[in-house]
């Protein structure tokens, strides 16, 4: 290392045995940039001299735990952050050569950030020297897009170069594959270098090097062939030109389609192939699942490899590989089973054929139907199962949501697993698993709650029962409310007739009629400039009236702070002469942001005119599912240590968001994992005072 690159950090002399040395730190922070999809990247760290017993620790700023790799005599992977498990290594002779560089395999965009190479001695008490490496992993920009339907005979990936030098080599490769070579051509095709998944399926023109048309023909494109392909031209082992092509293989419009009602015993997904080679393996999968395997068959069914959601529900014919009938029988199809299923046939681990089937499971006409008015306090979605094994798990879900879980119960309610739209609004009986009454109580129903709800019971990972309920929440009307109140008064009058004179009863009826408190419902979308709360009467108004508008104390955990009950009171000589009640609901409108599939950045919008408390906490996170914190603003600054490592260095809010009301979040270096829904929550003293949902929609056209 040159002397100019280091400066004394501590002018302290450290004695170790017969040796003495100073502690130094590098001034220079190396910068390394690599494309996502490359096999590996090396983060440099070199130390010319160090004592025995040295330990090398690579760490990632912002990760928790921060250790990426540790080496003392040998690699110690059990101490590293699991995000880097199996992806890091150092040279075996690192402590002999002083080359402490770290090799990071398959770099992802989320790996971007600051890495520290720390050399520790004397049982970690002394940090002898460290280096900083700034890693930037970027997604390559592609030159062209190719989209085809699965089932076509072939597709051409274009690569045209007008003038080529002599003695060149052309390599088609795919990002993220190992080995990455799809096709290699130098005077002729060289199949021995290619990934076996593409064996016998690639072709280039024989005179490609003369014409400059280096396009690649790919036969029988499968769904799994979708991705980024690179055409690289070498001359004397130096790269002369690169072209990147994005291939998207979509399900054929002519794929089989199966439609069934939920509640039938089973459904068959067809897949027929007349001739199959020996050693064939059949895999049914659904890309929406993780893991995606629905059923696997080779010599016999292999249920231990399937997604547990399908455990005990799938089967294939015992002689499937002899007859060519590879159809899959799916028992007890649910509404949530709808999707695209792919039957993949392998021979010697190579894909020979793929067939896709659309399955649509619709709600049975005999499913329970519940209709309620918006504005009621609560209601129950029924679900009765007379016998339940011990340790049963009950999950209420709505497949139209993401995540779909509305409520989960095992021994007790587990609200932290539910979709945040239902936070604080659902409950089940404490003894539900004993009585078999699994009904779900839903508070404050909204019109947007309408849909299909499913009550599913699991025992030891297997589904043991299921019921479906169709919910319809309709808007309430003022007239119906007034009619109900009037009916109550009439019944009260009839009751009083039994003991009072008719004249007195009529007088009381008239009196109460004019004193009835009616409820008017008003709904307005959030961010409207204003809303009018009505209070009108046709009765002549006496003089000296006073009017007072008041609001019932709002409950905590409201989605919108202005929603609630407002009362218009008219006083005459300090007595209430008339009262009207207005129920205001401020409807939170989910925002939808459209971006291109390869967009690099996006802003998730959230602006409000409300006065937000300065000591509030603003948190952006994924909507539902496993809680992933994207960004936190608290105590007047961003709290980077509270966000998920995959978002470190990629998010930013506006300056002074609580003062300006602009809580929008800017997110850069987008990945496909970012194409989801987000929720911004504003909290104070553990109460949610504001919430905004933003759906990120990808325009793939």
Automatic annotation (TrEMBL):
The keyword tRNA-binding does not apply. One of its GO terms (biological process) is immune response. It is found in: Cell membrane. Residues 8-127, 140-252, 262-356, 359-470 form the Ig-like domain. It is a single-pass type I membrane protein. GO terms for cellular component: external side of plasma membrane. SMART domains: IG (SM00409), IGv (SM00406). Its main location: membrane. SUPFAM superfamilies: Immunoglobulin (SSF48726). Keywords: Cell membrane, Disulfide bond, Glycoprotein, Immunoglobulin domain, Membrane, Receptor, Signal, Transmembrane, Transmembrane helix. Pfam families: V-set (PF07686). The chain crosses the membrane at residues 6-25, 485-514. This is Ig-like domain-containing protein. It comes from Perca fluviatilis. The lineage of its organism: Eukaryota, Metazoa, Chordata, Craniata, Vertebrata.
């Amino acid at each position: 290392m040159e002397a100019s690159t280091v400066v004394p950090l501590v002018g302290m002399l450290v004695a170790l045995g017969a040796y003495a040395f100073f502690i130094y730190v590098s001034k220079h922070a190396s910068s390394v940039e690599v494309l996502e999809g490359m096999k590996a990247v090396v983060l440099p760290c070199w130390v010319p001299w160090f004592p025995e017993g040295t330990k090398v620790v690579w760490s990632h700023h912002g990760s928790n735990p921060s250790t990426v790799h540790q080496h003392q005599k040998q690699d110690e992977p059990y101490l590293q952050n699991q995000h880097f498990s199996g992806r890091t290594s150092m040279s075996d002779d690192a402590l002999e050569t002083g080359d402490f560089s770290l090799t990071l395999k398959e770099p992802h965009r989320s790996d971007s950030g600051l890495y520290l190479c720390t050399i520790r001695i004397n049982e970690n008490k002394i940090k002898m020297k460290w280096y900083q490496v700034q890693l930037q992993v970027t997604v390559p920009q592609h030159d062209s897009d190719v989209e085809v339907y699965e089932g076509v005979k072939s597709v051409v990936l274009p690569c045209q170069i007008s003038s080529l030098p002599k003695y060149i080599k052309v390599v088609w490769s795919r990002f993220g594959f190992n080995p990455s070579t799809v096709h290699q051509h130098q005077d002729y095709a060289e199949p021995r270098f290619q990934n076996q998944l593409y064996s016998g399926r690639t072709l280039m023109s024989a005179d490609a090097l003369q014409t400059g048309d280096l396009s690649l023909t790919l036969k029988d494109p499968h769904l799994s062939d979708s991705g980024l392909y690179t055409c690289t031209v070498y001359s004397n082992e130096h790269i002369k030109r690169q072209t990147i092509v994005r291939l998207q293989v979509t399900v054929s419009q002519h794929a089989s389609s199966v439609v069934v009602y939920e509640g039938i015993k089973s459904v068959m997904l067809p897949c027929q192939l007349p001739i199959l080679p020996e050693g064939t393996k059949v895999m049914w999968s659904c890309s929406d699942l993780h893991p995606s395997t629905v059923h696997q068959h080779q010599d016999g069914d292999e249920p231990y490899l399937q997604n547990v959601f399908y455990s005990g529900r799938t089967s294939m014919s015992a002689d499937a590989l002899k007859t060519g009938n590879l159809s899959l029988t799916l028992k007890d199809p649910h509404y949530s089973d709808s999707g695209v299923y792919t039957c993949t046939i392998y021979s010697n681990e190579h894909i020979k054929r793929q067939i896709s089937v659309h399955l649509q499971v619709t709600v049975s006409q005999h499913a329970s139907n519940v209709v309620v008015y918006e504005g009621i306090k609560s209601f129950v979605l029924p679900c009765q199962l007379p016998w339940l094994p011990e340790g049963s798990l009950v999950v209420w879900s709505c497949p139209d949501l993401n995540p779909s879980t509305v409520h989960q119960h095992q021994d007790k309610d587990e609200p932290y697993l539910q979709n945040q739209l239902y936070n604080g609004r659902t409950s089940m009986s404490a003894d539900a698993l004993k009585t078999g009454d699994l009904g779900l109580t839903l508070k404050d129903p909204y019109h947007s709650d309408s849909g299909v709800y499913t009550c599913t019971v699991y025992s030891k990972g297997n589904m043991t029962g299921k019921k479906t309920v169709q919910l319809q929440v309709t808007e309430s009307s003022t007239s119906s409310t007034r009619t109900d109140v009037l009916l109550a008064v009439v019944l009260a009058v009839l009751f009083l007739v039994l003991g009072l004179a008719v004249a007195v009863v009529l007088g009381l009826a008239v009196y109460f009629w004019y004193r009835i408190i009616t409820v008017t419902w008003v709904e307005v979308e959030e961010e409207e400039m204003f809303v009018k709360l009505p209070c009108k009467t046709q009765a002549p108004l006496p003089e000296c009236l006073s009017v007072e508008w008041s609001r019932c104390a709002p409950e905590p955990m409201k989605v919108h702070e202005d929603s609630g009950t407002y009362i218009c009171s008219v006083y005459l000589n300090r007595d209430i002469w008339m009262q009207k009640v207005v129920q205001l609901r401020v409807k939170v409108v989910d925002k939808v942001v459209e971006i291109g599939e390869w967009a690099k950045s996006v802003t998730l919008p959230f602006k409000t005119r409300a006065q937000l408390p300065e000591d509030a906490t603003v948190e952006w996170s994924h909507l539902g599912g496993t809680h992933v914190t994207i960004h936190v603003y608290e105590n007047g600054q961003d709290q980077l240590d509270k966000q998920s490592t995959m978002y470190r260095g990629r998010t930013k809010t506006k300056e002074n968001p609580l003062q300006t009301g602009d809580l929008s979040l800017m997110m850069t270096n987008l990945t496909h994992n970012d194409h989801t829904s987000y929720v911004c929550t504003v909290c104070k003293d553990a109460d949610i005072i504001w919430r905004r949902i933003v759906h990120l929609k990808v325009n793939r056209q």
